[in-house]
Design goal:
Largest sheet: 12 strands, mixed
Structural class: alpha+beta
Radius of gyration: 19 Å
Shape: globular
Helix content: 25-40%
Length: 261
């Protein structure tokens, strides 16, 4: 078995493997992901006789802790062909990815595994729970929140403005990553005096809304009791102290690609 970085020539095989492992995923989304995110440095593959049987992406993000930048990677689209499972192939591929990232001075590798794979990351790959996503229920959104067609440039400008001067920890998305994250989600924009002040990402329920994320320019907040929706385990790299510093604070994870929603 060979473990290596995938090349542009491998894209047809990678797409085929992705769709065979995640048949509910829209081919158009896969195409957009490869156009926006794929590089010859962030996709890793296990091959046998030139056939790709396992793959994973380690997408680079820039994280900030108290305004200091840190180099992070998000492990996603982890899959192995059904005919090659239970052979330790992905475990070996993960070890290869970890070594490659450490050679490039990454400090943290994190993932969003589904429930059936969560224990594998924690027990077999030595991840520890670190990030938390939170949401809250409201019976209605304020009247200033308008349900509009998504203008990604407008939303991205609100997103960047909401991060200005922020303390604590956050992860910055590039514009292509941001578009992939939010294009298919329900969003309402806060308009005050014809000026956009923020936006919410929500799910409509019978008797109200569950607000998953809220980006606000200024100090305005929505009322609601927080509850944990999803968590993300992480793995420290290069003996970085970043994990231990974050672990004490149980940081919210708002800014990353979420394949499950």
């Amino acid at each position: 078995m060979q473990y290596e970085r995938a090349s542009f020539n491998d894209i047809p095989q990678l797409k085929s493997l992705w769709l065979s492992c995640f048949p509910s995923c829209a081919p158009s989304y896969v195409d957009e992901f490869f156009c926006s995110v794929f590089t010859e440095t962030n996709c890793f593959a296990a091959k046998t006789e030139n056939k790709i049987v396992s793959m994973a992406f380690a997408v680079e993000y820039q994280g900030f802790l108290e305004q200091k930048p840190h180099k992070l990677a998000f492990l996603t689209v982890c899959c192995t062909h059904p005919d090659f499972r239970q052979r330790g192939i992905f475990t070996a591929l993960h070890a290869y990815i970890k070594a490659e990232l450490e050679g490039l001075d990454y400090e943290l590798l994190f993932a969003l595994p589904d429930e059936k794979n969560y224990d594998r990351f924690v027990k077999k790959l030595s991840y520890r729970n670190l990030f938390y996503r939170r949401g809250f229920f409201v019976s209605e959104l304020p009247k200033s929140f308008l349900h509009i067609d998504k203008d990604m440039n407008l939303l991205y400008s609100i997103y960047l403005d909401s991060l200005k001067g922020i303390n604590g920890f956050y992860i910055l998305e590039s514009y292509p990553q941001f578009c992939l994250t939010y294009r298919q989600k329900s969003i309402a924009v806060d308009i005050e005096n014809k000026t956009a002040k923020g936006f919410v990402v929500y799910t409509k329920k019978k008797d109200g809304f569950v607000v998953h994320e809220y980006y606000s320019i200024g100090k305005r907040k929505l009322a609601g009791a927080g509850r944990t929706l999803k968590s993300a385990p992480a793995l420290p790299l290069n003996n970085s102290e970043l994990f231990d510093k974050l672990y004490k604070t149980k940081p919210r994870l708002n800014f990353l690609l979420d394949r499950e929603e």
